[in-house]
């Protein structure tokens, strides 16, 4: 089980790099070529959500991305250090539209990825996505 870990400053310009690295590692792991565009988009949405949570909360720290090549699947975990800010439910009286951006991003991810879990770890929010790999 090989793992590549990325940590980047919560800036929008780093999301593109995370997408490119994720696609390259997924290709080497054996994820089907036809799925790579959806994988890139899902990683971009997850990383953009994490960056947004950091920026809205005025937080430092890094966005974490772990790319793991398992025997029959390729797993990507995107974690934020936003703590309580990364709660899944947006307040109903949020006039800023930020909560709806989170909801839309999560809807896009769940529409693109069949095997997805949205939860928390000790640092904040965690989105875990998995794709099957082709036998070598």
UniProtKB/TrEMBL annotation:
<dbReference type="GO" id="GO:0004674">
    <property type="term" value="F:protein serine/threonine kinase activity"/>
</dbReference>
<dbReference type="InterPro" id="IPR003594">
    <property type="entry name" value="HATPase_dom"/>
</dbReference>
<dbReference type="Pfam" id="PF13581">
    <property type="entry name" value="HATPase_c_2"/>
</dbReference>
<keyword id="KW-0723">Serine/threonine-protein kinase</keyword>
<dbReference type="InterPro" id="IPR050267">
    <property type="entry name" value="Anti-sigma-factor_SerPK"/>
</dbReference>
<keyword id="KW-0808">Transferase</keyword>
<protein>
    <submittedName>
        <fullName>Anti-sigma regulatory factor (Ser/Thr protein kinase)</fullName>
    </submittedName>
</protein>
<keyword id="KW-0418">Kinase</keyword>
<dbReference type="InterPro" id="IPR036890">
    <property type="entry name" value="HATPase_C_sf"/>
</dbReference>
<feature type="domain" description="Histidine kinase/HSP90-like ATPase">
    <location>
        <begin position="8"/>
        <end position="131"/>
    </location>
</feature>
């Amino acid at each position: 089980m090989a793992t590549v870990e990325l940590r980047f400053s919560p800036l929008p310009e780093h999301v593109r790099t995370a997408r490119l690295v994720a696609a390259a590692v997924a290709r080497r792991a054996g994820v089907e070529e036809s799925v790579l565009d959806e994988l890139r988009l899902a990683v971009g949405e997850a990383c953009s959500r994490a960056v947004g949570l950091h920026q809205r909360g005025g937080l430092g720290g890094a966005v974490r991305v772990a790319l793991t090549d398992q025997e029959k699947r390729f797993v990507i975990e995107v974690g934020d250090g936003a703590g309580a800010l990364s709660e899944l439910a947006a307040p109903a009286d949020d006039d800023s539209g930020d909560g709806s951006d989170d909801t839309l991003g999560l809807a896009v991810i769940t529409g693109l990825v069949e095997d997805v879990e949205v939860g928390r770890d000790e640092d904040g929010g965690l989105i875990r996505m998995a794709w099957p790999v082709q036998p070598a």
